[in-house]
Input
Amino acid sequence: MYVTAAAPRRPTEEHPHPGSHPWSVMSSAPTRRTVVGTAMAAGAAAGLAGPATAYATEPQTPAAAARPAGDPWETVLADADMVWQKMPQTWYEGPFLGNARLGSGIYAEPGGANAVRFNVQHSEVQDHRPEFGSLFGLARLPIGYFTLEPVGAITAVDWRLRLRDAELTGTITTDKGTLTLRALVHNSRSVMAIEVTPSAGEAAFRWVFHPAEAISPRVDFKPVPDGYTGNPPAVVEDHHGVRAAVQPLLAGGQHVTAWRERTRAGRRTLYVTVAHSHPRRTARDRALKDIGSASALPYDALAPTHRAWWHAYYRKSFLSLPDARLQRFYWIQLYKVAAAARADAPVMATSGPWLESTPWPATWWNLNVQLEYWLIHGSNHLELDAVTRALGEFRDNLSNQLDAPYRKDSAGIPRTTDIHLVNGGAAANGGYAVGIPGQDPPTPEVGNLTWALHNVWLTYRHTMDESVLRDVVHPLLRKAVAYYLHFLTPGSDGKLHLPATFSPEYGVNAPDCNYDLMLLRWGCATLLDSARILGVKDPSAPRWREVLTKLTPYPVDENGFMIGAGVPFAKSHRHYSHMLAVYPLYEVTWEDPAKRELIETSLNHWVGFEGALQGYTFTGAASMSAQMGRGEDALKYLGELMRRFIQPNTMYKESGPVIETPLSAAQSLHDMVCQSWGGVIRIFPALPAAWDELMVHDFRTQGAFLLSASREGGRTRWVRLRSEAGAPCVVRHSLDGPIEVRDARGRRLPYETVGAGTIRIALSRGEEAIITARGDRPDLTVRPVEASEPAPRWGLPAS
Output
């Protein structure tokens, strides 16, 4: 059993683009089950094993029956598999595996060593010294990595990341033989299993574990707070064939990496687990137990339950479009988000579970979290919604971190937190507190909680689960808005004004900052709506109405939205914080002709400043263009993103790994395919002309509808909507000419025309409507569309 441990050492991989990135559950909180249980059930209501046709009772036509009966999900997922015929040299080139907690990135050992690195990281492993702030004292801690060290010199690799199975397979060829491998991070067990079958010349290959120094990765980028040091080195122990690297923490507790190798019929399988505990030192016992139970199973016995979860996961929705590169990218993002997120796991930090050298070893709340989770709604994956759960579970921390005078009735979330939503002390460079409007320091970035609650509101709107509204949105948004209300003052113009606050990440404070005015207006309107829905007579309702009536208009100039009063948008700025009313709040929209010039001017002025633009600039611009109905522009912006920023394995980097941008690009695709803001479901609102064929199935919309639709020959052929909540159904169907509406049994349904190409259908919970051209009886089978032209696979293919 050639598994050894090297002495602890710091990771040494250099960062390719150094730079700055200016970004205890209390009894009063509802339990995790109360907050997310019903919403998750709504996500599962459609059934994990999706149908092969758009609705179960539709008979196939003879033409459809004659087609090959390949499973559409298997087809698109196999097509999207990433491949490597060249050795990946770094984390943004290599395969990655994960289960939202345990994560591994696989690539060549840096420095020219003849080895392959399997990184071992865990989203729950963090420090517990709040006096040094979230970025040092509460930072995520690196754990270490294994190296697979062959006998001979590596000459070639041939790997495939099989998305459908969430499994890496392939070979490593050396001048002494071959190593055939399979690897997974098990979906429900906290274990990574790597099976290697060596040829005779490689029988003596070995595994070596390298513990990392348990210190905040930020020390390589920023000045260290006074008194801050790393934790003691890990100690490697042997427990009857199971080895354990025990990492003690200065604040108490430990994290433990345990591993064991088993050989069966010439196949050597390495089993790895990580456990974390604080303040008690119980992680070792848990890790040893987990390895004992997992290693008792051969790889072929461990894998089936893992694969079954992933197979069912993908079948909850379907999207196929003729751009092969983008379609593959989309399905890889669905793999990535499920490898990084679950409702009961920590809210994704900037790099998900794949911690690498980074100046941002925490969770970022002024854009990153919001963008990370948008795609879960349309793709019908509410089981991944950690934001709703975490905000509900740790709500008391959101008030306790404000200055004392505001804790009783207000709440806010710091820019940076640990997994418990704690920022920690005010150590220099240690983190970013909420701040107080009109004061600096700390930077008064006060809108982040309101924006995060917009994500939770989206979960409510896509499920119509009133428990989300009652238990999380209304009580927390009430406190977030109350914080603003402490500082609103009337001006000589009779309007209500805010003192100086901070618009992420422009760099200067501004009174009447658009970021905050837009969020405040959305917050007050949403509180009034939620109170009405919940039947709550809230004593603050008159104040919210007053704010909506008297709040000062958004500051604008000849270039569109400003940062705030007296502060024009005058330099390159990657963030669209000054334009949130356009997207994602949809409070200033293209459907209002009076706002179109403002939207277009603002968008063009924003993206016209080169210099500081980053990847998510282009996903935001794509989604705004989609709202404008400009599919060609949306596709252009996504093309710029792919060309300039997306890495070979679809990861994204600035000064370190940041996961939000590729995930938000998937949401931009959603916005091109379907939009459901403002009570109207818009079918294919912004498709480029080249996408003359498209299939979408069980796409989740606001109002808790599951949408299926097909575009054929450049025209919408049919639309199907299934209601899960009996909410009002208004649909802009995009079909040409006269239409008819039928139920799942083919019976005509009445409908009301409420606008050009827009109808209202009365659907009760569980009922369906199928919209077609009059007299048309299309085939409703779910199937992939053909690619318009060949495209290279993601990964590192041979050419």
Q: What stands out?
A: Confidence is low (pLDDT under 50) at residues 7-68. Residues 514-534 form the longest helix (21 residues).
